Amino acid sequence: MIQVIDKSFEVFITKDEIQQEILSLAAKINDDYRDKDLVFLSVLNGAFMFTSDLMKNISLDCEVSFVKMSSYSGVESRGRVDELIGLGDNIAGRDIIIVEDIVDTGITIDKIISLLEPEGVASVRVCTLLYKPDAFKGTKRPDYIGFSIPNAFVVGYGLDYNEKGRNLDTIYQIREQKKQRNSMLNIVLFGPPGAGKGTQSERLIEQYGLIHLSTGDIFRANIKGETELGVLAKTYIDKGQLVPDEVTINMLKAEVGKHDNPQGFIFDGFPRTIAQAEALDVYLESIGTGITSMISLDVAEDELKARLANRAKTGGRPDDANPDVIQNRIDVYRKETSPVKNYYETQEKWVMIDGLGTIDEITVRLFAAVNAL
Ligand code: AMP
What we know:
- It is a single chain.
- The strands form 3 sheets. The chain has a 6-stranded mixed sheet, sandwiched between helices. It has a 5-stranded parallel sheet with strand order 12-13-11-14-15, with helices on both faces.
- The relative contact order is 0.10.
- It is of the alpha/beta class.
- 40% of the residues lie in helices and 23% in strands.
């Protein structure tokens, strides 16, 4: 890796690869122009190094000139006027190869060709070390191409970043500035009871290899196992109230700590209070990670009630069967849990997606939101 001014670059094309490619370009040109009267027009500044190495391998009886594109404001005409500086009187009736370090949009090459045509040249071809097909918008595709490269910023071997880096013998590519987050993907899946958090979590686990931590599920497992925690939690859950923060937070930390090197977590049903959100941040930071995003599933209240009533028939959850408990859970969500959204919103980590529609439709929205993180 190298640093040019304020940017980091990594090796893209080594000097050996460049020299190897130049040998084959030169061999083709030597072959194609064996009996021709050839003038190379090298375009300054970028092509100086490429031209120099290329010429050492050209065995033809040829001429080499250097030109520079310039554009200035005309005195009478509006707009810019293009000029080719350094063009001698040696090109009329001659075969020309324009030598470029890089062709990206192709606009410069088109301009140069349009300026050469009135000079009565016999033919014009373009030889470039680098070519960016994805950026190309011109009419004259290069005839001799060293390397076709993706549309990324490159420096070295004649190419500059703010005039620096031309002297490097290797071509470097700018390093992608990755978003500032560690490699774990930690998602808080948020939404009122019945929003579909459990169902969508299953899809996220499969797609992104995450570990699903649902505090509701953990409480239910404890209730079933008749543990001390389960007995305590049941008194709250049966009424649709929240289990006290201290109990819930300690339980969650213990669950997170059970996993070695996870790719990330989906927190489902947690945090439900600001105190829980703060405790989670402190804990995740202590293990070198943090919340990537809170994704909120937005569903209208009537739809929620209908879904919960439906789930009561198959899900085996007593808290889904009682309309008073359902209402209380929704009220608790509005009053105590909704503020958690603001907590993540102020950290610019809150994303809302429409939770209405088929399970598949919601999954598509959810994956799009995760992919954009
Ligand atoms: P859920 O399965 O997420 O709908 O949770 C069912 C019940 O478990 C809730 O109504 C609460 O009583 C309790 N519970 C689940 N998660 C939490 C939490 N983070 N904080 C407090 N209570 C919770």
